[in-house]
Amino acid sequence: MTNQIYHLLPVFAAYLIAIASPGPSTLAIMGVAMHQGRPRAVALALGVVTGSLFWAVLAASGISTALTAYAEAIFAIKVAGGLYLLYLAWKSARSALARGSGQTAMIPLAGKWALYCKGMVLHLSNPKAVLGWIAIMSLGLRPDAPSYTIPIMMAGCAVLGMIVNVGYALIFSTSVMGRAYQKARRVIEGMFAAIFGYAGIRLLLSRP
User: Fold this and answer.
1) How much is the pTM?
2) Which end of the chain is more exposed for a tag (fewer CB within 10 A), N or C?
3) CA atoms of 32 and 34, how far apart (whole Å)
4) Residue 132: pLDDT band with limits 50, 70, 90
């Protein structure tokens, strides 16, 4: 068991780097934390983690192989995800151009359950996420790997996902980060708009 966990350390390191890097999901968590408070940001973060684990289950069960055979389904998911990211880019750009405190609503004010669902949509609308999980599974699995390898991988990544995403929600909901944000609000919102827009256009133009 100990040797197997040691073998999976590169898997956990790769996953940690991937989820900690700035992207649409992490930026959305940061924005909600600063504008709507800690409980709502945590709800969004939990939705993101749930979406990630959904793709993990698909990758582990082999259903992802079947999904790749249905180009229409992948295309529909890709279009929906790209349009949603462009919508977030528009919301952020409008906030960046607003005077004063701005209409900081890249994700509109909503209840915790609604934000949890939006977190899942953010992650599930990116079909490349399942490809990332396939890569992670390939990195951690060997022909002689014991049957408990996949559960250990998924459990470890789930814990890391919780720590990173909920950590973003907790850190960026503090008063210190709130004051820092107000000083650089327009720049930060502009950055959000650029990254969301780039991600949305790239997703729409990418090949199936």
Assistant:
1) 0.68
2) N
3) 5
4) low
